[in-house]
Amino acid sequence: MSYKYRRLWRWVALASRALTGMVTVAAVVLGLSGFVTLKMPGESYAGPLPPLTGREWNLSESLRNDVTALAGKIGERSLQKPENLEKAAEYIAQELKTAKYNVLRQRFLVNGGPCYNLEAEISGIRRPEEIVIIGANYDSPPGCPGANGNASGVAALLALARDFSGANSARTLRFVFFINQSDTTSNPQQNGSAAYANRCAERNEKIIALLNIESLGFYSQDSASQRYPAPVLFFYPNTGNFIAFIGNSASRNLVQAAVGSFRDNARFPSEGIIFPDSDHSMNFSTSRAFGECGYPALTVTDTAPFRYPYHHSELDTPSRLQYTQMARVVAGLNQIVAELARML
Length: 344
Known about the structure:
Layout lengths: L2 H31 L20 H21 L7 H17 L5 E7 L2 E10 L4 E11 L9 H18 L6 E8 L13 H11 L3 E8 L29 E6 L3 H14 L4 E6 L9 H8 L4 E5 L21 H19 L3
Parallel strand pairs: 3-4, 3-5, 5-8, 6-7
Antiparallel strand pairs: 1-2, 2-4, 6-8
């Protein structure tokens, strides 16, 4: 072997050892920080996305219409604009009533003013005491029309509620729309999810799972379009083209089940992430509220704070979202909900 090639192989060996060392250090940091790297069931979809089905095309238009109604026509839905919050609540309630649901309001006070969570339910036939909750917050941050955050989640939740209307399930299935989740200056105990989860605990309700839907509308094929908190970035893709299922270590079984179901039924990239309870960078407030009450909870999200350029800004408008991609995701979520609720 010539001197030139010996030098080349020596350089390759040194580079390999350095890379191995970096990965080892990253794994140690990840472990010490409490993050858990678990093999998720199946494989994330890769390659060109298949054409939309007719049902998915219709779903994409339905999602667009709901996001436009909430973030375009109504606009900012924060506690600073209570009249818009009430318009949003009325819109959601009317859509649920049209889908043949009875709509309940949970009233609680925030800074002396009334706030309302909205609930629609399908009672279980065989195991009604076991409850699956699919949730999304319908408010937005101050100064933000909130298309991706979180009219996209509300639109997805309405789509799921319409799909399951009139269906029979073994377990009780609830669709819950939370208020006061987007204002980061608010006391977490005044969030709608905290009020709801605490009431579930007071009633000794047996919540099998919470699926929180938060920001579903933005995906990118560009390299380096995805960011993460430092310990995680070594282990996940840097292209923001996937949907994420994120939960704490106590909810790892739920995360794995959801990811497995999605990969079995949807042709769309997906990732599952398990984080420690102490890490709030990826612990979305709705999931955290249920986790603090001892309930398994995960968030389904496009990871907007780590990807979406218009997150919590006045530019978060309906025209920024990708409704065909949302439709693919919601179609996959439909199967997860069906499996959790044990549809008959």
